[in-house]
Each structure stands twice: as C-alpha cells, then as structure tokens.
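Prompt: For my understanding, could you write out one protein's sequence and backbone structure tokens?
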Amino acid sequence: MTRPLRLVAVSGGMQRPSKSAALAEHLLDLIAEAVPVEQHLIELGPLAPQFAGAVWRSQAPAAVERELVAVEQADVLVVATPVFRGSYTGLFKHFFDFIDQDALIDKPVLLAATGGSERHALVIDHQLRPLFSFFQARTLPLGVYATDKDFIDYRLRDEALLQRAALAVQRALPLIDLTRHAKAPAAREVIVA
C-alpha cells in the first residue's frame, strides 16, 4: 500500500483571516478530493516574527525549521501569496530564501495569488513562475488568481474563480499522479530493505 502524498501549502498572507490562506486551503481540499494526501498549511503571518530578522537558516527557531523541512519534504506544493507592490510579499520570498536550492527539484507546485484587482493577475507568470523555476520545480500548467471581489467573508464565492480552481487542479492531477506513482516504488524498496 502506498502512503498518502505529503501535500503542503504555503500562504504568504500576513493577516488572519487571509484571502491567500483561504485560496490555498480551497486548492488543498480540491486536490485531497482526488488523491490520498496528508495536508499541511503553513501560514507565514504568524511565523513572520520568528524569522523576519533571521539572516541565515541556522538563526531560525525550531518552529520555523519544522515548516521549512515540511516544504522540502513535501511531494506536492501549493503556494499562495497576496500581491504587494506588484509582486509576492517580501516575507514570502524571505521564507523561500531559506529553502535548500535542490529540495524542490521536479516537485509539482500549484501557483496562486490574491490581489485587489485584475491588474495584478500576471504576478503568477511574471513573479512566481521564475522563483520556482530557479528551484527547478515543476510549476503546474494553470495558476489561480483571485481578487477581493471573489471572496465573501474570506470564502471563495465567485463561480468563475471556483471553476478556474477546479480546472487548475484537474490539469495538475496527471503530474500529481506521476509523483504518486514515482513514490510507490521508493516506498516498496524501503519495505523490502
């Protein structure tokens, strides 16, 4: 029997409640409906005071180190960030600056962002894709961008956005499935050894 995939989401939102966290959770749930996963959501807002002043990973406290390891050991990542001044937040980037540069190689990453208006929708392709290309991750074909009007009380309500999220996950599933099957032989090898 294969173990569930480790599905980790990182929300770059600095507030609670957070639209980015709500979007990340929605995407986690959609993936979990399709494949067996262990879900974990990392919200950077509450963690920020613990790592904002760290220059080196060794300076991060144990709670931050656990979340960094969770990202590095994930089988699939979902990342969601609010748009701030045309890009992801500085603390979102600072968190990923601590990730080992080889830890995300070939890892499927579903990209998502939230912003005040449609004018920031290209943040996924112009900011997030290059960041995860540096890590040699497999950014999934469709990203999901949501604006303030797509939410009511921090819940996704816009039908077009819900359809886009479902389509993004649907298009991601073949790559996620490849990851799942690639993990199965490794799990069998461990059991045999």
